[in-house]
Amino acid sequence: MPPKSFRALTERQRCVLQALVRLYIQRGRPVGSRVLARHLRRRLNLSPASIRTVMAELEEMHYLTHPHTSAGRVPTDKGYRAYVDSLTETETLSEHEQNIIARELQARENRDTLLQDASRVLSTLASAIGIIRLPAPEQLIIHRIEFIQVSSTHLLLVLVLQSDVVRTFVVQSPLTISPTHIERLSQLLNEYLAGHSLSAIPDILSAVLHDVPPLPAPLPDLVQQSLQQFPLLLQPSWQLYVSGASQLLRYPECATVEHARTIATWMEESSMLLHLLTRYEQQLQHQPIFIGIGRELRAATLQDYTLILARYHLGSAQGIVGIIGPKRMFYPKVIPIVRSVAQRLSELCLQA
Question: Which residue among 7, 207, 328, 347 is buried most deeply as judged by most CB within 10 Å?
Answer without folding.
Answer: 328
